[in-house]
Amino acid sequence: PSRPATMGEASPQAPLAVLSKVELRVSCKHLLDRDTLNKSDPCVLLLMQSQGQWMEVDRSEVIKSNLNPVFAKIFTVDYYFEEVQKLRFEVYDSHGHAGVGTHDDDDFLGGMECTVGQIVAQKRVTKPLFLKYGKFAGKSSITVISEEISGNNGYVELAFRAKKLDDKDLFSKSDPFLEIYRVDDDGSEQLVYRTEVVKNNLSPIWEPFKVSLNSLCSCEEKRKLRGVVWDYDSRGKHDFIGEFFTTFEEMQKAMGENKVQWDCLNPKYKLKKRNYKNSGVVVLLDLKIHRVYSFLDYIMGGCQIHFTVAIDFTASNGDPRNSCSLHYINPYQPNEYLKALVAVGEICQDYDSDKKFSALGFGARIPPKYEVSHDFAINFNPDNDECEGIQGVVESYQSCLPKIQLYGPTNVAPIISKVARVAADEERTKEASQYFILLILTDGVVTDMADTREAIVRASYLPMSIIIVGVGNADFTDMQILDGDDGVLRSPKGEPVLRDIVQFVPFREFKNASPTALAKCVLAEVPKQVVEYYSYKAFPPRCPQPHTPDSNLGSPQ
């Protein structure tokens, strides 16, 4: 497909809690044989139901001439406890086609439907495969094994080669490939990776590959691993060359200039041949560990979330002295601006040690000359626009209203650019020390849309996110353009945003909900945006967590 479906995608109005990611491993038994000369060449497609339609999410590799395949491909899905996530696995005979998308009924070897919840609850699901119209596909079955990615903290890149392997072919040299298995606590083995085949070579160099640390060793350095070298056979009857056992702890000796090697042993030869040494040597040329940090890693490392609020003071809000105005101060009930400000600000203040918030206004004539300003401090202190806590912002807002004249137009690009300049200074420190959230509260569609798009594209390269809350009953359709959920936001010149950093929400959808519902919705994307930015810049958390034996594999919960 041109765009894989997003697993368990949640609507902006009702964000779901991703409990974890789940890895799915697939194998089949007794597949139907569709080929006359050789056995079927199976491939598995994973589909997920979205709005009543089945969408292809991912597919496995093709395994040649094998009716009992164990696929090396690991499918990863997001697991939402509160949502029924329907999955469908379809097995096809590829016939060596470049793609499986152009198959007909003769290629279909069977399908199986289940839910993510079922797989997670049972850990291992084995079901029969069905053809069209509910007909059994003979004795064919499919097994899906699930594993929760908990404490997953990155992946490892491995580069293997072998030397002087046994020659299993009469008229040419062996065609070796390598499989890596993880040995689980019950003694069973899980295929972690299968390399490509290197043709006609007894000293092959396989392509480097990446696997998650969770997949390789369950984030346990001492867990037993088994490597197996085979001589490839096009009919699926691969010849066993030899095996070796190791651990991730031992593998790590290959970092830098060092290399680690193992004798590739055939147990049968070892028993029969008195002078048997090995069936070749397997060498780990290089190992690189890539840490993947979480939002908590950055926060616990000392990263501060700096919160700025920008309030719309354009005339369309109505005279603040009139009870119909969106800025009317009712002594018994806060207006929508205050409700949105408090709901979002109270969450953000927990991540800001000094509890000081920048508070800006736009679209008003301000004293002393009563000229229109699009980025003024609502405490009227141009040298320090910060207020003490959320309550300080509320007090500055209330005391500011009688002193200004609501005017226009609704230009927000100046404020985005102002926060972006501060964020750019922070970026130059090359540390994950401060991330900026700009909350814009407005009652209408922005007037300077072209400049705003340009400012957002520039800001997407900086440590900042933008939350826009639409206050009142205006038509905010055009504002959805700024929220990249429906496509990629571009500048007027066509340059796309580096990251999706804008979240737009109309406040009226939360009028009757609790304040926490609004905060949950508008802040749901922030942790991901923080991690995306620092990952793009390759900035690690400032203060690494205290070292424990497995600290390079575990992450804070």
From TrEMBL:
Give start and end of each C2 domain: 1-129, 136-263
Q: Which GO terms describe its biological process?
A: cellular response to calcium ion
Gene of origin?
Cpne7
The record's listing under Gene3D superfamilies reads: C2 domain
Keyword Repeat among UniProt keywords:
yes
Keywords in alphabetical order, please.
Repeat
Q: What is this protein called?
A: CPNE7 protein
**What organism does this protein naturally occur in?**
Bucorvus abyssinicus
> Which InterPro entries does its entry note?
C2_dom, C2_domain_sf, C2B_Copine, Copine, Copine_C, VWF_A, vWFA_dom_sf
Q: CDD domains from the entry? A: C2A_Copine, C2B_Copine, vWA_copine_like
